[in-house]
Amino acid sequence: MALPYLSEPAPIEQLAGSLGPNGLPYSLPLHPNLVHFTIGLFVIAIAFDVAGALYPFERRLFRFLALPVTRAGLHDVGWYNLLVCSGLSFFTVAAGFYEMLLAQPIAGVRSSIGLDAITTMLWHGVGGVFLLLLIVLMTIWRGYQRFLWRRDMGRQVQWLYLLAGLLLFGLLGLHGTLGAELAAEFGVHVTADQLLAAGQNLREALP
Amino acid sequence: MASLLPPLNDHNLPWMDTLHPIVVHFVIAMALVAFVYDLVGVVARRPALFEVGFWNLLFATGAIFVAIIFGQVEAGLASPFGGSRAILDIHTTIGWSLAGVLSLLTGWRYVLRSRDPGSLPLSFLGAGALASALILVQIVLGDKLVWIYGLHTVPVVEAIRQGQV
Asked: Do A74 and B55 touch (CB under 8 A)?
């Protein structure tokens, strides 16, 4: 039954003409590339703050390696990497939402952890915004420690902050697994998978 | 002997998901951001950023060898088809080359830093820019293997096993 107010195609259909076989107006998705920066910078930021916090135990090792190092230098890596991570992650989430709007997961698939496509996409989408919020909050927390609370201390971060960071590693890992499944199991924005789902022969469609 | 190897899943992998794309987070992000820190350090005269650049570069150099190990294993299990064969060859060649390039850069940087941690010659910045460009090319090639040819994705693995590709 056609309703008069639904006579226009869904907004997403208006883009259909300019989309390639991967469902995007360009050949390689942006979000998975921005994710390199979000995950890499966050993990290394926390790792270097851990190294800075445990500095007294490492001094002999660094001396043995003839690698001059200062505690402030290690904490600088922890601060700047997290700051850059916070800024870039807004683009990661924005690109992710754009590409999720255009996602066409292969029908009838269940992921290796037993979720269907829309459940995986919802967790990954909503979880992504939640993770961005946590990353920004961590950055603010880190800033307070660096510039106010622990400005004159050798160890620039609280143990609780490091613990929170390590817990976030787990969340990021879980979240990344959902994202990886969207590509490698549901075939979202993977040209070859979408061609196969459309019944095409890859020998001819993707030589 | 083959029976001693672990069984392969529907991604044609002995482990849950591809690991190479995860390890390369730490090469791509750290190496590219190291160059940005160096650039900002020179342009904005903030020598403290050189230290941040150095540590990120050192980490990227360590990580690339781990990325290559997993990359080789997963490339060996990828059964590339059509145009992806040539791309995988070039990706492999550039990958090993980048291990050399990043190692040389880190060694050079170690010497520069030992002499004067507060300054960075433009020649190093130029080399960093070239290495960054090479990394960008490498990202595009790796992206093509995953996002166009779908290597190690379930539908492609299935099609390969059924002899359709």
From this structure: yes
Structural domain includes residue B9: no
Interface contact flag, A43 B26, Cβ < 8 Å: yes
Phi then psi dihedrals of residue B124, to 5 deg: -70, -40
CA atoms A107, A109, A111, A116: torsion sign? positive
Residue-wise burial string across A31-53, b where 16 or more C-beta atoms lie within 10 A, e elsewhere: bbbbbbbbbbbbbbbbbbbbbbb
Which residue matches tokens 């869904």? A10
Does B147 contact A112 at a Cβ distance shorter than 8 Å? no
Q: ipTM exceeding 0.90?
A: yes
Question: Is residue B11, in this structure, part of any structural domain at all?
Answer: no
Q: Has residue A180 got a pLDDT over 80?
A: yes
Contact A103, A187 (CB under 8 A): no
B120-140 residue pLDDT tens: 999 999 999 999 999 999 999
Predicted TM-score of the model (pTM): 0.91
Please say if the pLDDT value at position A2 is more than 70: no
Contacts of B77 in chain A (CB under 8 A): none
Note whether residue B137 is domain-resident.
yes
C-alpha distance from residue A53 to each of A48, A134, A150, A161, B70 (Å): 8, 22, 12, 11, 31
Within 10 Å of residue B27's Cβ, how many Cβ atoms? 28
Q: Which residues fall within 8 angstroms of residue B129, CB to CB, at 6 or more apart?
A: B35
Residue B8 maps to a domain: no
| Chain A residues within 8 A of B17 when measuring between CB atoms | 177, 180-181, 184
Q: How far is B52 from chain A (nearest CA, A)?
A: 5
Of A62, A12, A6, A21, which Cα lies nearest the Cα of A194? A21
DSSP, residue by residue, B50-103? HHHHHHHHHHHHHHHHHHHHHHHHHHHTS---TTHHHHHHHHHHHHHHHHHHHH
Whole domain around residue B71: which residue ranges? 16-161
Q: Say if CB A21 and CB A195 are below 8 A apart.
A: yes
| Inter-chain residue contact A202 with B82, CB threshold 8 Å | yes
Contacts of A177 in chain B (CB under 8 A): 16-17
The alpha carbon of residue A14 is apart from the nearest alpha carbon of chain B, in Å, by 24
